[in-house]
Write a structure and sequence with these properties.
Layout: E1 18-20, H1 28-35, E2 44-49, H2 53-65, E3 69-75, H3 83-86, H4 101-119, H5 133-136, E4 141-144, E5 159-162, H6 168-171, E6 178-188, E7 196-197, E8 204-207, E9 212-215, E10 219-220, H7 229-242, E11 250-261, E12 266-274, E13 277-285, H8 291-314
Helix pairs in contact: 2-8, 4-8
Family: Belongs to the DAMOX/DASOX family.
Enzyme class: oxidoreductase
Subcellular location: Cytoplasm, Cytosol; Peroxisome matrix
Length: 322
């Protein structure tokens, strides 16, 4: 039997400062007055767009690594309604054709070490990764709203971190990113204690803390978020072939998520300009089915890029001599 680490997401995204809003793009000034009234003038205001495992881990890393900053996570969906909540949460290496192998190994190694430390800590009893706990202690905010244009966040924020996954088709104009639909079944089968996975990885049985995840599908270009009954029958049949005792599973729930696939993770800084305005953006998206496996490593790199942006903002521009 092989071994692996399972880290089912049990993200508690209900901190005291989680606000739902419905105001328009031009009303961010009121948000700015409310949330940043008492901040020091040299505090960098950072918006993280997206609240999946990539967005949450990025916010945590920024709060840990970037001094004198305030972090706000903005998303139209939080747990349990994100793609990350559908994921089985297995730490398995994935390959990105457009990303150097040594970089992928570094991301995976940093993520593995981070999660391995949690697995050997007092939190191991939950076998979960509580990403948001790092943001509560560092004074972060969570804001529920839809962003249709990154310029909506200007001038309320100094830096934007784009962790919007598939939303980057619109927000970043990135035609390289597309959905790979994944449908799974979450069942009650407490007797299943070990994971089982076929050679292709298409069929898998992953036990978690509250349920067992049975999968799955890989449907490229399919945007359908509604469960498909035929997919469910096929998944259950394939998984029962691997583990016949699953015929006795109960409380079967169908879940669908859209993996944000891209040939390579986009992890880079872009300076947006418009009518003399400047908005630094750190793009961090395109993890496909490997978000769980490399999220901490890529989040650390994204935080380093944010730190560079903050340093640039605080560095006076030399005046040219005429």
């Amino acid at each position: 039997m092989g071994s692996s680490f399972a880290f089912p997401l049990s993200q508690d995204t209900r901190p005291a400062r989680h606000c739902k809003t419905s105001f328009g793009a031009r009303d961010f000034g009121g948000f700015q007055d409310c949330f940043f009234r008492d901040r020091p003038m040299d505090t960098a205001r950072i918006a993280v767009v997206g609240a999946g495992v990539v967005g949450l881990s990025t916010a945590v890393c920024i709060s840990k690594l970037v001094p004198q900053c305030s972090v706000t996570i903005i998303s139209d969906k939080f747990t349990p309604d994100t793609t990350s909540d559908v994921a089985a949460g297995m730490l398995i290496p994935h390959t990105y054709p457009d990303t150097p192998i040594h970089t992928q190994k570094q991301w995976f190694r940093e993520t593995f070490n981070h999660l391995f430390a949690i697995a050997n800590s007092a939190e191991a009893g939950d076998a979960g990764v509580h990403l948001v706990s790092g943001i509560k202690g560092s004074g972060g905010w969570m804001l529920t709203r839809r962003i249709d244009d990154l310029w909506e966040l200007y001038p309320s924020f100094d830096i934007v971190v784009n962790c919007s996954g598939l939303g980057s088709r619109q927000l970043a104009g990135d035609a390289k990113i597309f959905p790979v639909r994944g449908q799974v079944l979450q069942v009650q089968a407490p007797w299943v204690e070990h994971f089982i996975r076929d050679g292709s990885g298409l069929t898998y049985i992953y036990p978690g803390t509250t349920h067992v995840t049975l999968g799955g599908t890989r449907q490229k270009g399919d945007w359908n978020l509604s469960p498909d009954a035929e997919n469910s029958r096929e998944i259950l049949s394939r998984c029962c072939a691997l583990e016949p005792s699953l015929h006795g599973a109960c409380n079967i729930r169908e879940k669908v998520g859209l993996r944000p696939y891209r040939p390579g993770v986009r992890l880079q800084t872009e300076l947006l300009t418009q009518d003399g305005r400047r908005l630094p953006v750190v793009h961090h998206y395109g993890h496909g089915s490997g978000g769980i496996s490399v999220h901490w490593g890529t989040a650390l790199e994204a935080a380093r890029l944010v730190s560079e942006c903050v340093h640039a903002l605080r560095t006076p521009i030399p005046k040219s001599k005429l």
